[in-house]
Amino acid sequence: MSALTLSSSSAATLRADAVVVGIAKNGSSGKGRAAKAAVVLAPGAEAVDKAYGGKLAATLETLGASGGEGEVTKLPAPATGVKAPVVVAVGLGEAAGKQESYDAEVLRRAAGAAARALAGSKKAAFALPVEDAEAVSAVAEGALLGAYSFTAYRGKEKNAQNKGDKSGKEAKDSSAPLAEIALVGAKPRDKAHKAAVERAQVVAEEVHRARDLINTPANGLDPKTFAAEARAAAKSFGLTFEVLDEKALAKGGYGGILGVGNGSAQPPRLVRIGWSHPKAKQSLALVGKGITYDSGGISLKPAGHNETMKCDMSGAAAVFAAVVAAARLGLQANVTGWLALAENMPSGSATRPGDVLTMYSGKTVEVLNTDAEGRLVLADALTRASEEEPDAIVDVATLTGAMVLALGNRTFGIMANDDEFRTALHEASEEAGEDAWPMPLPGHLRKSFDSPVADIANIGERMGGGLLAGLFLKEFVPESTPWAHLDIAGPAFNESGPFGYTPKGGTGSAVRTLVRLVERTAEGD
Questions:
Q1: What residues contact residue 48 under an 8 Å CB cut-off, 6+ apart?
Q2: Catalytic residue (one of 375, 512, 516, 520)
Q3: pTM
């Protein structure tokens, strides 16, 4: 991951490949002689503006910059006054007033957009508004999250032309993330600023861990290799680790996980990874859907819906990364992560529509659609997690296309059996900068799960499918235990172009919300 430092140097005098400044829209530009510039500079740009003779904003406006959120404009630095050869202006939206500051998420996204625009560069100085520790954290986190690329499967070209020019100078790798980030204006000796940066580095590294797992193709990440990744991390960071293989799952009666994994040559796994703090007063269980590839099983997905199904383990990736982050940050809470790992494939041994599975809880489920498999592996993991009597449980899953239809590609849904807990999770997501929306669990929809041959069917009526999935999972959690379900099907995998600090492909959705939830738990909120 990119290196990050706090710098007390001037943005104009720092040696770097580029210097990043913020610009904003001037809300009251006026008319005629009283007209003001439509673009204004954000705090932090003063030294760079001085090198332009005070005309940086006017120059950017001439180039077409508007100051809109996420807009990036590059221009050559003046011949004197700025050591970096390039100035990058990133939009912050509406200008903040004298008594106001820029929203943390605005700064996060702006820093991320600038970092993406500087891919292939060795070092950049970020001179964005950092008036307090919260702003320092936002800029640091955004820049680090934006400086991401997944290159594990890129071919290593042997053409000499790609190694450099005739002078021996190494060619610039435009796909490589920005290597070094210097935060100008932050205070290297300020404890709050240092703590903010240290947290941002850990959180960003763990989001990158989740992104890497999600982006890894299914032939490189199956349940066994995912479990091995968790085992290695547990060893590195002092976490407890336990894995149930197919034999242990069969002995324990985990019919949901086994039923989903039966059709694959790669057997399923249930992983438990845990962090405990000696002074912890609260415990959380996090449960993640880990379908390393989802073909739909016998209820095969239609053409055009299979290509990105390596991402169906995004929930497990988020849980895994969040538990590691909690350990690395030393958060004063006990956190267990349950990774329900399986591959959903069609074969002669696959579960068929109409089959009945006996779950770990003892409840029987009639499988009417094998593509509604995530709820089956989660049900077993939720029951197992409940046995340890945590104070609260959260499950995370790319569970339903219905949630994408309801909330779009950038917002995840939150359902819960406890209104206060649902509110706490929503607040955590807002504080983390992740878009989420509270959703209901209407009791009248439960009847559509009735089965003539089993305790419950795995699908109900078509409309409200995202809520129905939540109601199914609710059946496997004790009523006395606060529980929430995050359906991240929309934001988990970005199939369109990158934006802000969000890359194309795996996003690491929900990692930051879960980390913030653990922090709130540790703080007693």
A1: 11, 12, 19, 21, 56, 77, 82, 87, 127
A2: 375
A3: 0.95
pLDDT tens digits, 17-47: 999 999 999 876 555 444 567 899 999 999 9
Buried (b) or exposed (e) across 41-59, using 16+ Cβ within 10 A?
A: bbbbbbbbbebbeeebbeb
d(CA 452, CA 131): 63
**Beta carbons within 8 Å of 250's beta carbon, 6+ residues apart:** 258
- Asked if residue 285 lies in contact with residue 338, where contact means CB atoms within 8 angstroms, the answer is yes
* Active-site residue, 375 included: yes
Residue 81: per-residue pLDDT: 95
Examine the pLDDT at 463 and tell me if it is beyond 60.
Answer: yes
The pLDDT confidence band at residue 525, using thresholds 50, 70 and 90, is confident
Contacts for 488 with CB less than 8 Å, ≥ 6 apart: 314, 315, 318, 396, 397, 398, 412, 509, 510
Distance CA 421, CA 284 (A): 12
Range in 32-36, 258-262, 275-279, 312-316 with the lowest mean pLDDT: 32-36
User: Which one of the listed residues 50, 83, 301, 410 is annotated catalytic?
Assistant: 301
Beta bridge partners of 365: 357, 456
Q: Are 438 and 345 in contact (CB under 8 A)?
A: no
**What SS3 state is found at 229?**
helix
Q: Known catalytic residue: 169?
A: no
